[in-house]
Amino acid sequence: MEISSKENTHFFSNNTILPVDRSSFKSESSTSKEKQSCCGGIKIFLGALSFVYFAKALSGSYLKSTITQIERRFDIPSSLVGVIDGSFEIGNLLIIILVSYFGAKLHRPRIIGAGCLIMSAGTFLIAMPQFFMGRYRYERFPSTINSTVSISPCLQDKSQTPLSALEKSQAKINAGCEKEAGSSMWIYVLLGNLLRGIGETPIQPLGITYIDDYAVEENAALYIGCVQTVAIIGPIFGFLLGSLCAKLYVDIGFVDLDSVTISPKDVQWVGAWWLGYLIAGVISVLAGIPFWFLPKHLPKPESRKDSSTSSEQSKFIIEENKDQHTSYQQQAKLAEMAKGKSLEFSSWLLNFLPSLKNLFGNPVYILYLCASIIQFNSLIGMVTYKPKYIEQQYGQTSSKTNFVIGLINIPAVAFGIFSGGLIMKKFRIGVLGAAKLSLGSSFFGYLLLLSLFAMGCENSDVAGLTVSYHGTKPMADDEQALFSECNSGCSCSKNDWDPICGENGVTYVSACLAGCQASNGSGKNTVFFNCSCVGIFESSQSSSAVVGPCQKGNECPKMFLYFLVISVITSYTLSVGGTPGYILLLRCIKPHLKSFALGIYTLAIRVLAGIPAPVYFGVAIDTTCLKWGSKRCGGRGACRLYDSSALRYVYLGLTLVLGMVSILFSVAVLWVLRKRSSPQDETLSANGERGACGTKSRKDHYVNSDQLIQSTYWPEKETRL
Q1: What is the CA angle 485-489-491, rounded to 5?
Q2: Which parts of the chain span the membrane according to its record (predicted)?
Q3: pTM for this one?
């Protein structure tokens, strides 16, 4: 700070004419004011940017927490939910080039403010279908809804139901079909997430470069570290918000909650998913307000004006200007500026292909890029469907699942990222050591993941789906298996999903398919009697049943506890390798190609992992569905029941296969590094010259502004664990 004060004094004295007898006093006073203005301005920007990072991380993680809620609310399969999730990356890619090229030349704070408004508009748009698509309707037998008409579940004859009630019910269904036939409200969720991606685009590159341009050089890394720390905190609050909203019924405030006959443990339960998006949208609006009042430029520290260690972008522009003999002074004419920009673009275009060839000719870069793409496919797919896996495999509610992920898993990831950087610094690990640490982290992480195969729960006993009506296993994959002699006299539909739990511990798809002849009570307290299918079961002592599915086996809670422990350790272990892997990427690229290499790296991760992974993971998970819901107008809806064993093998198996393939590429990276290194020096340059990456001055070990723009991508993806 003392150096900064002297530089500010020098700056002031060169631009101010003062009387001789008062120069000392005024110079000192003005220096203090300028110092406070510079530091105050950048700290205000830092606080505003940190809040924006928190807002975008919160809304992104909240979307992950509502995946199953959206699937049930809109009656769509997991594969379509994957498309919705990937639309964020598509929106980001649409304008990333325009923002990166033109953003730095315009008013950066206001562009970030505009991005926040777009991001909030997208978040509000996601919630809008709730207010236009009517109340949520779940499948329930009429007697479980507070009704004055006593109806037998097993309809021997439709005349048992009053004609007026049937006509009224049919009229409602027909009206609903006319409304739903011309609309697919999930499209608004997709478009909203697309807008979120567009709005988020300028925040990272323009915010980080603004800090790097106007902060004192030795403080820049600290400021950026603060921003990234807040970005890691955001997902914690996002999942906790998801946990809170999942406890509330979807139509809270619009319906009488006493009339709701399902509980959060029911697979048809949908929480108030829309409420969290309204909260996240308001936070995004508030986060963008300060940027409209921040200046386009801040006073630049003297150390950054005459420093020979300017950013890579500044060096690049200076060198080009020297070669082209073009002046870019602020007072230059518009024609000269246009001509200069044209020459700059032409020069960039001519250098693009040789740079691309040089980059892809680097075996370390190519192999690490392939390893990262495949590993991110594994991680993104696993993270996207982790809430669904916990809910379906261990019978947990959405609320509890989100609470566990937000309060246990994400802090483990943050601690892992920090530990990786700490290990690198404490032991002064070079490039070869970084490759070993990254490989070891992945290997042991996926090895721990392998143990989760033994920590699953068996399928619940569901008559006609996982067990026969007589209690034998296994069942053939045939919808006709839902019908048996015990319910042959009932007028039942195989498309219904209104589960009841028999006294024998077996779940039946509906009271009708259980052959129940009478019921008592209403709502959640309904009890069914004289259920012929319950009575024939081997372990049956009575023939009654209650509303809702039976709980999973007694061993399942214990397995869930084991899963949590291994999951936290796995998240930590995989995250430790993030920082070393990124350092490996930075130090094995020629200095003038680093920004280009990081741009290609981020683009490849987004296009080849961020977009496709949720889709094909969703398609694979859909293959494990045992019972699909039916839309009111016909057609397949969301899955009601998964095969627990098949889901475990598909979800964990796909994650592990991709992880093992990425490890093979990491081994190849290590092999190439060993081949091109020596015992005396474990560092490596991009062209194979020994010591070129690690024997430079200490300044070269600091990541410049362009590198820091991209480095935030690692933690942001990893915090989704």
Answers
A1: 120
A2: 40-59, 80-104, 110-132, 220-250, 270-294, 365-383, 403-423, 435-455, 559-586, 598-621, 650-673
A3: 0.79
In 3D space, the residue among 431, 299, 462, 472 whose CA is nearest the CA of residue 701 turns out to be: 431
Token code pair at residue 497? 């999903």
Nearest Cα to Cα of residue 560 among 430, 696, 423, 391? 391
pLDDT digits (tens, 9 = 90+) for 534-568: 877 665 556 788 888 888 878 899 999 999 999 99
Q: Which residue do the tokens 């049930």 mark? A: 72
How many whole angstroms separate alpha carbon 570 and alpha carbon 413?
9
Domains and CATH numbers, the chain: 39-139+184-300 (1.20.1250.20), 357-457+554-678 (1.20.1250.20), 459-551 (no CATH)
Q: Please state at what angle helix 217-247 crosses helix 410-426, rounded to 10 degrees.
A: 160
pLDDT for residue 140: 66
Query: Quick one: tokens of 647?
Result: 């889901």
* Alpha carbon distances (Å) from 659 to 280, 374, 489: 33, 7, 52
Residue type present at position 641: L
Q: What is the DSSP string of 377-418?
A: HHHHHHHHTHHHHHHHHH---HHHHHHHIIIIIHHHHHHHHH
3-state DSSP call for residue 684?
Answer: strand
How is the beta sheet containing 518-520 ordered, strand by strand? Answer: 507-508, 500-502, 545-547, 527-529, 518-520
Alpha-carbon distance of 700 to 425, in angstroms, equals 15
Helices (H), 451-488: none
- Report yes or no: 18 and 29 within 8 Å, Cβ to Cβ: no
